[in-house]
Amino acid sequence: MKKKILRSYLITFGMVIVAFIFCQYFQGHGMSRTLKGQLIPICAYIVMALSLNLVVGVSGELSLGHAGFMSVGAFTGVIISGWLLNGFGVESTVMRLLLGILGGGLTAGIAGFLIGIPVLRLRGDYLAIVTLAFGEIIRNIINCIWISVDGKSLHFAVTNNVPGTVLVNGPQGAVKVARIATFPAGFVLVLFTLVVILNLVNSHPGRAIMAARDNRIAAESVGISVLKYKTMAFVTSAVLAGMAGALYGLSISTFDPSKFDFNTSINILVFVVLGGIGNMSGSIIAAAVLTILPEKLRAFSDYRMLAYAIVLILVMIATNSAQVRGLIAKFAPKKKSAVKGDDGNA
């Protein structure tokens, strides 16, 4: 079992490292400008897909408001970065990016904890509806606030009459953002996310989370605190989503709260479902491919989203087809059966 887990680790990390080396090489050797601009969002969406898979695939709960945590991290990262630059004169992009990502993750984690305590007492559709409401509430709150930095002071208001340098301009969102996020930073964040999630899944808390997913009553009967472990998974997912949001927010000059609406949450859920629920490697591949695909289909103009939908349907049919599963099973290495003794027992 340990060898199997180690082999899975090596394959997943090797895939990410090879992809990073490949992209780094082709950035200076013929990579299109459009694809270069997508590298950081791809990293952010990979982290989002992995973190949501922790809730949906490992914990077994359906969350439809994951973009809400991403927005919390994005705006927090922008505020921290702008505050450090304009209030404290910190010009180091590495320091501002690091603190912005950490601050975004911390703020999203606090939000995840506050939301998770009441939400995770619900089950099924009720939980999905409440998480959806959370995402929409966060978006509307950000629509109604103005944040600026004046010296070392941050100012929050519900009108546009704020002194100093404006960082968040109400419905216009974050404005004049310093684009300090880099592709290597995104690569490091993806590796960090993989380390956190894979180690959590294969630890004692991870097995408790999966036990509660498979049979809540049986898990509670042996003393497992279902609420505790589901909250652990939910908060960890929120922290990683907030860090991804901060990376994404610091990679574009201007963005508004509508960027993190219900459609974004659904897109991230599509990454998880298409890559395989509980399959981290599949989430990485699906997030990367489906982030690039809409841009590659832009040449089809009005038929772009139709072609995108057809591709999704074909992939879902292929991955859920009995014939395809049978073909995979045919070529997959077969497990060795136990040697039986003369009495027929293993």
Description:
The structure is a single chain. The chain has a three-stranded antiparallel β-sheet with strand order 2-1-3. The chain has one domain: ABC transporter involved in vitamin B12 uptake, BtuC, CATH 1.10.3470. It has helices at 2-27, 33-59, 66-88, 93-119, 125-143, 183-201, 204-214, 216-221, 226-249, 262-275, 280-296, 304-320, 322-331, and strands spanning 146-150, 153-157, 165-169. It is mostly helical and 346 residues long. The protein is 69% helix and 4% strand.
List how many beta strands DSSP finds.
Answer: 3
Q: What is the typical, i.e. mean, pLDDT?
A: 86
| Distinct helical segment count | 13
Q: Determine the CATH topology.
A: ABC transporter involved in vitamin B12 uptake, BtuC
Quick synopsis:
With 346 residues, the chain is mainly alpha-helical.
Which characteristics define this entry?
3-stranded antiparallel beta sheet, disordered C terminus, mainly alpha, 346 residues, ABC transporter involved in vitamin B12 uptake, BtuC
